[in-house]
Amino acid sequence: MGIVGDSLERAAQAAGTRPIPRSAGAQMRYLVKQHKGSTKQVAALLGVSQRTVERYVKDQIKKPKADLAARMETEVKRRWQPLVRKRARDKAATQTGLVIETRARFGFTAAPGTTDDGRMRRITQHLPPQYAGRLLAAQDAGASEADLQRIAAEGLQDVYFRDGGGRADGLLVEFTDIDYIDVNL
């Protein structure tokens, strides 16, 4: 993914109501269950042998190496509480919107001779459901990172730079150098 897509994914994962399983064996059993009992698929997913997966399932191995532990945690988080995550995303897309916090260089076009050159800004802004819905729908449809950034920039352009459409002075906002984007559903 990219910076916006990853941020949307982290926000959806944070919407969970219960923590993920803690032990390596419990995480591995959860992944096997998600793959309908196929230890072979989980092994391919994690880049380990099928026998290693079986050992974790039976609690014969209790402490994974750091890289395997990180991969297991990432895969469990990606699949954890899908209905809760879907509910949070649907609510953001239709009712509450989402909050974007970013530090990026915002360049925008304005009349020649103005001092509206692009510069680094740190912005925390609530985006209404219309933009949240577009952003989440684009992510679900497999949109590119550039498309996700464009939708987020349009939302910030309208809500932050134009005060909800009150100032329509030909502004065109675009992200150029993004340090980070954090999204809260």
List the helices and strands and how they pair.
Layout: H1 3-14, H2 24-34, H3 39-46, H4 50-57, H5 66-79, H6 82-96, E1 98-108, E2 119-127, H7 129-140, H8 145-161, E3 173-184
Antiparallel strand pairs: 1-2, 1-3
Q: How would you describe what is shown here?
A:
The chain is built from eight helices and three strands. With 185 residues, it is of the alpha+beta class.
How many angstroms does the end-to-end distance come to?
19 Å
Poorly predicted runs are none
Order of helices and strands: HHHHHHEEHHE
* Biggest sheet descriptor: 3 strands, antiparallel
Strand order of the largest sheet: 2-1-3
Q: Specify the helix fraction band.
A: 40-55%
Q: What does the overall shape look like? A: elongated
> pLDDT average, as an integer?
86
Strand content: 15-25%
Count of helices? 8
How many strand elements?
3
Structural class: alpha+beta
Q: What is the rounded Rg? A: 21 Å
State the main characteristics:
8 helices, single chain, elongated, 3 strands, 185 residues, 3-stranded antiparallel β-sheet, alpha+beta
